[in-house]
């Protein structure tokens, strides 16, 4: 089976000026998270879409889904975790307990606040995860990359041609991901905030899927303004 895990566990503290997590803010005429969920629900290859939210937003999320999408047994809302990796593990445990995991099980993990992911990106993620076991959606870095360890002076300026900006989805063979997570030491687990980094830490290849510059992550107030502009252009 193929699963999508929509990671909506954050509270959006960087958005500022609102107590509402950023994934529930309005984009166009509906919440950001609904735009995102819809992209995965309409994909015929995805069997179940699992949405992971803070516990106190589970009922609210279910209400929004029923309001904007309608009742759909293929959308499941469960509690996220304290960290991104905890949230990811919650999705895997749910899949294991309710559907089972076999050698062909695939999971696409996606930020709830990236509402402009395209069908092509999703399709390419599914194909790459099936073929290679792990993939990350990226776009080439356009700005010069500057490294500073102390935050005051430049340590190095690496060759930009070799650097990419990570987006999501990040997609994996579930059994492979589960085994790697369980192999982490406590020290390794404490510093990991990215699922692909788990693979690289264990010397496992992660293949690149081409993203889109419009596949933005809504983090700050300006991002929401930009997202509304992108949406208007898409609707013209």
UniProtKB/TrEMBL annotation:
Main EC class the enzyme belongs to: transferase
Pfam families per record: IspD
Highest taxon, organism lineage: Archaea
UniProt-listed Gene3D superfamilies: Spore Coat Polysaccharide Biosynthesis Protein SpsA, Chain A (3.90.550.10)
Example of a GO biological process term: isoprenoid biosynthetic process
SUPFAM superfamilies found in the cross-reference section: Nucleotide-diphospho-sugar transferases (SSF53448)
Gene Ontology molecular functions: 2-C-methyl-D-erythritol 4-phosphate cytidylyltransferase activity; D-ribitol-5-phosphate cytidylyltransferase activity
PROSITE patterns: ISPD
InterPro entries: IspD/TarI, IspD/TarI_cytidylyltransf_bact, ISPD_synthase_CS, Nucleotide-diphossugar_trans, TarI
Enzyme Commission designation: 2.7.7.40
Keyword terms: Cell wall biogenesis/degradation, Nucleotidyltransferase, Transferase
Name of protein: Putative ribitol-5-phosphate cytidylyltransferase
Species of origin: Methanobrevibacter thaueri
